[in-house]
Amino acid sequence: MTVANDIDIHDLIILVITAAVKHDVTIGRTMLQKTCYFIIDKLEIKNDFLPHYYGPYSPTLTKMLADLIELDFIYEINSMTEKNRNLYHYYLTEKGISYSNDLMLEFPFIYKITEKIVKHIKSIDGDKIETISFAAKIYYINKKNNNIKSFKDIVSNPLPNQIYGWNLENEQLINNGKQWLISLEE
Predict the structure, then answer these.
(1) What is the C-alpha to C-alpha distance for residues 164 and 105, in angstroms, rounded to an integer?
(2) Is 158 exposed, middle or buried (0-12, 13-18, 19+ CB in 10 A)?
(3) Which of 25, 96, 139, 178 lies at a CB distance of 3.0 to 4.6 Å from 127, suitable for a disulfide?
(4) What domains sit in the chain, N to C, each tagged with a CATH number?
(5) What is the pLDDT of residues 24-38, one digit of tens each?
């Protein structure tokens, strides 16, 4: 049996995109970062995630995504939002699909966890970036503060605003994020 730390993050990115396409979850930069964050944490893989505007962010993951695009495993579609912001979507090339099939056979346990998390993303508030970003922020704070058990304590604590610049006061996001995190632990 392969242990989680044997998987390369490049390979994990490919598995995330594979599961996302299978379950009709749009994978852009933020969604990829948050999905990988949850998977990497679940698998206890050493990482470099740090606080960022949209939640935990890994510069290494960004570099590896660029590598995979350059190596023609992934292609990127760029479009503009109504607010003139770049929006990116990621898909596997034929080469990426072929490689993904090999990875699913080599790492079935990791792919199963990846699929589970992607399904949770789809099931809670669709696959809205705001909800997933909020859930990732809460999860990150919880991990950094020795697993605080009260969700209310996390969102009412002024430290995330002071330390990370994260506003955690949106009631709908609190409810959706809490539901998402509970389902992630199941």
Answers:
(1) 39
(2) exposed
(3) 25
(4) 4-185 (1.10.10.10)
(5) 988 999 999 999 999
